Structures are given as structure tokens and as C-alpha cells.
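Hey, quick one: can you model this chain's 3D structure?
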Amino acid sequence: MINSSENLNNAPELNKLTIGEFESNICEFSFFEFWVENINNDYIIQTDNPSSIKCFSKVNGASIINDKKIVYIGSNLNIDLLIQSMFWLVLLSFIPKDKNIKSSPFKYKKYINIYNYFFIIYSLYF
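Sure thing. Here's the predicted structure for all 126 residues.
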């Protein structure tokens, strides 16, 4: 296959000479491969949200604008939603379930009623 990741060694170091390799080999280098080779370099990471699922967390391209190196990492809304949902479900599962729930009356109920009363009067006259 042409441009498959088996034919490529590692992601090259990002500089002006190798920027074309990132543009011609879209979705061939993982973000981790890129990060290992460019750990001490100065670059800006931007997500490419409308990319396909195949390109999730892979380098979608790179460019140099005003002497700033910008790397575009593939992201997908569906996968992002799944990952975030799993994260919140795991986080919420750590909340202990208290079997002895005490029903306590709301202390400030009369203050909220007074506030609502004044709010209604204010909204009617002003």
C-alpha cells in the first residue's frame, strides 16, 4: 500500500524541511509517535474536529504560519462523546450510595418565597 504506516519508520522531527512529509502522509503518524520525536520542540497543537474516525488521535497535517509550527491532530465528535461519557460514568460510580437518607426540610423555603414575591411585584410594576 502506498503511504501506509508500515512503510514509514517514525514520525520525523517537525521543521521547515520535513513539513511536507506531514502534509503528504495524512493520518499516518500517531500523536504519540509525533510527540516522542518532537518532545523538545516548540509547536502548537490544534484539533481537527471534523476528521474521520480513522484519523482519530493521528497527525492530520502541519503548517508553519508566522514562524509558528502548528500541528493538527484528528479528533472526532462521536469518539469524543463516548470517551467523555465513559469518564463521567466512571467518576459518578465512585460516589457512595447512602442507604440511610435523612429527609430534612428545606430551611430557607420562606426566604425564597419572600424573594419570589418581591420579584413578581417588581416585574409587574417596573
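One thing worth noting: The chain has a mean pLDDT of 78.
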